[in-house]
């Protein structure tokens, strides 16, 4: 008998595999999805391996197969196991990244009353009596329906009482499929019929409309959507007459949901490369032709033509019979990227990101797995696309923090996953950026990656090519009595750009109208009651909003502590900046681009269209406008304050500030006219700001990497961040201290001296969504080894290679 090691879709599974026997009638292989018994449930599982021996004595058989073919190919199966091992996450969490959209299904609990009569001497709570009454009114009821009627806690308590006393019983059923192929009605001619003869007979019988419909179908030479037939003026009754006579057939055909609108896509021609671009392309193509995994870092200043290198490298991969993945850091960039790549590879580009409907994701995933597309473009999760014959992986703006998954397990970094995927498939990786991650650039210096340089902007006709960057010391502006958001230099620059009918970007990396609301009498700052962070004022909603849990509340008219009416709005956000800009430049057409105005599905496309068609004079935005947007009519970028990211308590603060300022500066002068950047700051002497002024990544890198080495921070060490959350502050602190004692004892017994434990201490946001947070940081040589052989209690989260300490 054969046995399967299965990863089960259950929180209890964690990083463990479970052994099941394979019934003789089932043909099971690794990567296949199966139904397995797990406790009282039947759950989904993924077969990871098969052997002739069981890891345990008592095993249960697999219940059945979900799909006849493997849903996860061998390379992806190995990659998922690596993700689970490296990022210390449950193996099913890693495997689920590779599953088709909508594939995961959970067991649903149903309840029904038994025939047992309630004895008089059995005491039931009022909630249990209400639940029993509801159960006896219907053959069965779902637990969710009961929770809706009685409340979650009351329902769980009531069900426990009823089941314990034999008055009710639980049943489990698997959730229905979330998504299926889209089927549409099509009308076609019956190939077995003599259509010409049928038309002649209908005309003899004076069934003119039926004959017209047959002629219409004959001219189409293929099955026609029923909707198109109806739009052509033929009625449903007429269609039924033909199908009844078996002259035409109405059938359902699977139709793919197409997320790319090719209406405005025009085929693009290959551009002539300059010397630096050609050298980079030649190196990448050599890697492709070798068939061996390799990592190239394409360090090109903003506007240096990195995308054209990507396009021509992808074309070479396709010529070699391979396919490609192209990743972008923001969904906002996806439409722009798709348009560029679809123009070069028409009808051969797929797209994957979370703003697609579940149906579109489903269809794109299955088309990709069939090998229908040469190129897949998407955000972070597109790295898990089932692209066969993978030859080239491009990560554009590889430095961006959005490539790190922080919302849910697994907490992977796309760059690391891409490099491991390349090792498993023999693909080539290209990491492109004007401001590479310090760790990435360090790997080019130690020989792990190959460095390719594009040191100059592409020169367009009439363009001076180089950016002009000016620093404005806001301390000097205050000394001269200027209390405005706009320095005199920025005000003049905007006025001149508007007079020349050019576009302007104003960058400020904070949403809302005010940073916080404060009482002038007692200095109280209004905080979120769930997160213990200041709430931001949003004038559009006329309310205070927590940017971490989205809690809304009205703006207080009196101080809740001292009852003073002296309420003050402190600081600014993009909404306030928009109001001030409208006041200063009333003739300008303004557009705000931040997460508050991009919640609808096509918001990014509409905003981009307005900018490209010059319906906007001044674009106001957060970091969304700093990431790779190609807006050729923008000649001036104004940074309202460079200090918001510099002063964060994190070892990456300087790097983030440099990257953000450099990237937003790169939005200016990408067309035929020269660009200018004006950066306002209270810290003009900061090394990151000075490096931006000099437009020198190397100057920044040398100072940053020296500091990192002195502090033993990455890339000179590895880090693991442990976070414990609990509704009780003291309980959170006690558990964090207990784990530190346990880890310290483990280090002592194992003789580990090259790992340091910092903390535990309250997190930077000590309370988030009603739960207190304590953190510890492990730093040193492979600190994750302290956690490899044990499972942490519920409430702990593990983040390997965190973006920061907060």
Key phrases:
24 helices, seven-stranded parallel beta sheet, globular, 806 residues, alpha/beta
Describe this structure in words.
- By secondary structure, this protein is an alpha/beta fold.
- The protein is 33% helix and 23% strand.
- The chain is built from 24 helices and 34 strands.
- A seven-stranded parallel sheet has the order 15-16-14-17-18-13-19, sandwiched between helices.
- α19 links the parallel β27 and β28.
- The longest helix is centred in the C-terminal third of the chain and has 22 residues.
- The two termini are 51 Å apart.
The number of strands is 34
Structural class: alpha/beta
What is the count of helical runs?
Answer: 24
Terminus-to-terminus distance: 51 Å
Rounded Rg? 31 Å
Regarding quaternary structure, how should these chains be classified?
single chain
Instruction: Provide the helix percentage.
Output: 25-40%
Major sheet: size, sense and barrel closure?
Answer: 7 strands, parallel
Shape: globular
Topology:
Blueprint: E1 3-8, E2 18-21, E3 33-38, E4 41-51, E5 60-61, E6 64-65, H1 74-86, H2 91-96, E7 107-113, H3 126-135, E8 141-142, H4 143-150, H5 152-164, E9 168-174, E10 183-189, H6 195-204, H7 208-220, E11 224-225, H8 226-231, H9 236-244, E12 248-254, H10 275-290, E13 294-300, H11 306-319, E14 323-327, H12 334-344, E15 349-352, H13 358-369, E16 375-378, E17 390-396, H14 414-425, E18 428-433, H15 438-445, E19 450-454, E20 468-473, H16 474-479, H17 488-499, E21 503-507, E22 516-519, E23 536-538, E24 543-545, E25 552-554, E26 567-570, H18 574-584, E27 590-593, H19 603-612, E28 618-621, E29 634-639, H20 643-646, H21 653-665, E30 676-681, H22 687-694, H23 697-711, E31 718-726, H24 729-750, E32 755-768, E33 771-780, E34 796-800
Parallel strand pairs: 2-5, 13-18, 13-19, 14-16, 14-17, 15-16, 17-18, 20-30, 21-28, 21-29, 27-28, 29-30
Antiparallel strand pairs: 1-2, 1-4, 3-4, 3-6, 7-8, 7-9, 10-11, 10-12, 22-26, 23-24, 24-25, 31-33, 31-34, 32-33
């Amino acid at each position: 008998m054969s046995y399967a090691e299965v990863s089960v879709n259950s929180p209890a599974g964690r990083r463990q595999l479970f052994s099941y026997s394979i019934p003789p009638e089932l043909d099971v292989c690794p990567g296949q999805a199966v139904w397995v018994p797990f406790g009282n449930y039947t759950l989904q599982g993924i077969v990871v391996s098969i052997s002739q021996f069981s890891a345990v004595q008592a095993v249960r058989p697999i219940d059945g197969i979900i799909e006849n073919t493997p849903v996860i190919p061998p390379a992806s199966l190995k990659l998922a196991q690596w993700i689970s091992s490296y990022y210390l996450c449950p193996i099913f969490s890693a495997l689920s990244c590779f599953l088709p959209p909508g594939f995961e299904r959970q067991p649903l609990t149903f309840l029904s009353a038994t025939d047992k009569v309630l004895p008089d001497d059995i005491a039931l709570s009022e909630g249990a009596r209400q639940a029993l009454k509801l159960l006896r009114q219907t053959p069965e009821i779902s637990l969710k329906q009961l929770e809706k009627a009685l409340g979650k806690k009351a329902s769980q308590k009531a069900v426990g009482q009823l089941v314990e006393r034999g008055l009710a019983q639980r049943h489990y059923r698997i959730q229905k499929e979330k998504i299926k192929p889209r089927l549409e009605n099509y009308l076609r001619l019956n190939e077995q019929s003599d259509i010409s003869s049928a038309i002649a007979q209908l005309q003899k019988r004076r069934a003119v409309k039926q004959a017209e419909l047959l002629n219409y179908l004959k001219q189409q030479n293929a099955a026609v959507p029923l909707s198109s037939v109806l739009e052509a003026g033929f009625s449903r009754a007429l269609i039924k007459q033909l199908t009844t006579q078996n002259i035409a057939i109405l059938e359902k055909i699977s139709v793919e949901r197409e997320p790319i609108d090719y209406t405005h896509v025009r085929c693009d021609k290959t551009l002539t490369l300059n010397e630096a671009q050609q050298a980079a392309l030649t190196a990448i193509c050599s890697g492709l032709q070798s068939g061996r995994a390799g990592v190239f870092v394409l360090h090109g200043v903003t506007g240096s033509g990195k995308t054209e290198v990507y396009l021509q490298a992808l074309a070479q991969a396709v010529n070699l019979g391979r396919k490609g993945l192209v990743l972008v850091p923001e969904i906002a960039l996806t439409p722009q990227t798709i348009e560029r790549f679809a123009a070069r590879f028409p009808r051969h580009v797929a797209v994957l990101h979370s703003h697609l409907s579940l149906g579109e994701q489903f269809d794109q995933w299955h088309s990709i797995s069939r090998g229908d597309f040469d190129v897949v473009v998407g955000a972070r999760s597109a790295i898990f696309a089932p692209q066969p014959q993978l030859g080239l992986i491009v990560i554009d703006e590889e430095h961006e923090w959005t490539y790190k998954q922080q919302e849910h397990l697994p907490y992977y970094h796309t760059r690391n996953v891409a490099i491991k995927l390349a090792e498993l498939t023999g693909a080539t990786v290209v990491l492109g950026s004007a401001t590479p991650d310090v760790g990435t650039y360090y790997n080019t210096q130690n020989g792990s990656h190959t460095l390719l340089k594009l040191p100059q902007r592409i020169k367009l006709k009439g363009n001076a090519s180089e950016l002009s960057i000016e620093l404005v010391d806001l301390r000097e502006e205050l000394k001269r009595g200027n209390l405005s958001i706009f320095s005199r230099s920025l005000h003049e620059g905007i006025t001149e750009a508007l007079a020349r009918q050019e576009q302007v970007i104003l960058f400020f990396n904070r949403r809302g109208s005010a940073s916080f609301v404060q009482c002038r009498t007692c200095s109280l700052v209004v905080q979120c009651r769930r997160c213990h962070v200041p709430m931001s004022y949003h004038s559009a909603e006329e309310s205070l909003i927590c940017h971490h849990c989205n809690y809304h509340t009205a703006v207080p008219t009196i101080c809740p502590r001292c009852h003073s009416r002296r309420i003050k709005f402190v600081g600014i956000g993009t909404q306030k900046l928009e109001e001030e800009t409208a006041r200063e430049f009333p003739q300008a057409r303004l557009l705000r681009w931040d997460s508050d105005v991009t919640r609808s599905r096509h918001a990014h496309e509409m905003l981009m269209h307005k900018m490209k068609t010059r319906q906007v004079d001044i674009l106001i935005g957060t970091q969304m406008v700093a990431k790779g947007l190609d807006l050729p009519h923008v000649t001036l970028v104004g940074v309202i304050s460079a200090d918001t990211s510099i002063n964060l308590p994190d070892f990456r603060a300087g790097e983030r500030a440099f990257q953000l300022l450099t990237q937003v500066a790169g939005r200016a002068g990408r067309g035929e006219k020269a660009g200018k950047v004006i950066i306002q700051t209270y810290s003009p002497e900061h090394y990151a700001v000075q490096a931006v002024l000099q437009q020198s990544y190397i100057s920044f890198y040398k100072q940053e990497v020296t500091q990192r080495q002195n502090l033993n921070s990455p890339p000179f060490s590895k880090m693991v961040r442990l976070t414990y959350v609990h509704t009780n502050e003291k309980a959170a602190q006690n558990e964090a201290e207990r784990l530190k004692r346990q880890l310290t004892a483990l280090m002592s017994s194992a003789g580990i001296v090259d790992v340091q434990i910092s903390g535990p201490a309250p997190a930077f946001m000590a309370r988030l969504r009603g739960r207190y947070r304590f953190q510890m940081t492990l730093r040193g040589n492979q600190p994750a080894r302290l956690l490899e052989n044990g499972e942490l209690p519920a409430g702990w989260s593990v983040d390997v290679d965190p973006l920061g300490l907060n």
